[in-house]
Amino acid sequence: MKNIGRDMNHYLDQNHRREKYADIISRVKNDPDVRRFLYTNRNELEPDAFSKGIAKLYEFFNEKEKIAKHEDNFAPGYFPRLIVNNHLIDVSYEPQPAKVAADAAAAKAALVDAAHMPKDFRNARLDNLDTAGREDALGAAMKFVNAYVANPKEYHQGFYLTGDYGIGKTYLLGAMANELAGYQIPTLILHVPTFSVEMRDAINSNTVLKRIRQVEGVPVLVFDDIGGETASPWFRDDVLGVILQYRMQERLPTFFSSNVTMQNLQENMSIGRDGQDDSLKSNRIMARIKFLAREIEVRGKDRREEIARRSTE
């Protein structure tokens, strides 16, 4: 914190304005907040606390005026408050309501790690969803949130949302994640096609295992658009399989969204290198997915088309 008293004396000495010192003292002393503080704490302050604390009183007065005039101040987002410190006058800074609200919103948003997700996803709410065709999925999401919040140490099975492109599967899962964030429960949402590319890049930097460790143990994990990634036996077995195995063993809530059914996903994953049949490995992956999640079909209108239509009206 800069020395307000030293700056004030420098200002007075260098600019030959010491004659205004008395006026400044008078304005500070007659400030309603200063008067109230001095009267309220008169029995706690030393007899010469005013003269010893003039720099602090000026700091309080000056910063308060800047805030009132919407000027740049010493601690943006914070309001000065006079306090008694060892029987002398001091200044502390408390966050303004807008600052408190902004910090709370930022902390809540940080609980949902959702890179590569649409912007409207971050404002998704379960109570704002169009329920037509989504009744089962919405009911499952609400039931999960209530059950997990009530008993976070118990195992709660996730769900696998399947349905056409654009009908709101990811949006619903994002709404659920935002709801959980309100209870300080973090969620990681992975866009699987993007994640698979990132993991292949991680081979060059030798950080594959590190990235897997970062993902596998998060409290709530969502695999978004699984089945949309380029077929890769390595990603299936050494990345996805490892993460799913860990979460199955640790009984960690895991969710999926996909444009294909579980049956179709199993068939797609059964294609190995050079077209060989990898049904055994595919079955192993799907056994983990089915343990972690139950399949729910989502219907409804294409949300993207609806949003585009509204934007042109």
Give a written overview of the molecule:
By secondary structure, this protein is of the alpha/beta class. The protein has 2 domains: 4-96, no CATH class; 111-312, P-loop containing nucleotide triphosphate hydrolases (Rossmann fold), CATH 3.40.50. It has 14 helices and 8 strands. The strands form 2 sheets. It has a 6-stranded parallel sheet. It has a two-stranded antiparallel sheet with strand order 1-2. Strand 1 and strand 2 (88-95) form a beta hairpin. The longest helix has 18 residues, at 233-250. The radius of gyration is 30 Å and the shape is elongated.
Give the domain tally.
2
The CATH first-level class of the largest domain comes to: Alpha Beta
Overall 3D shape? elongated
Order of helices and strands: HHHHHEEHEHEHEHHEHEHHEH
Range of helix content: 40-55%
CATH superfamily of the largest domain: P-loop containing nucleotide triphosphate hydrolases
Helical stretch count?
14
Using the coordinates shown, work out and report the CATH topology of the largest domain.
Answer: Rossmann fold
- In spatial order, strands of the major sheet run 3-5-6-7-4-8
How big a fraction of the residues is strand?
5-15%
The CATH architecture of the largest domain can be given as 3-Layer(aba) Sandwich
Main beta sheet: strand number and arrangement?
Answer: 6 strands, parallel
Overall average pLDDT: 83
Radius of gyration: 30 Å
- Number of DSSP-assigned strands: 8
Unreliable runs: 308-313
Structural class: alpha/beta
InterPro entries: DnaI_N (IPR009928), P-loop_NTPase (IPR027417)
Domain Primosomal DnaI N-terminal: 1-93
Protein name: Primosomal protein DnaI
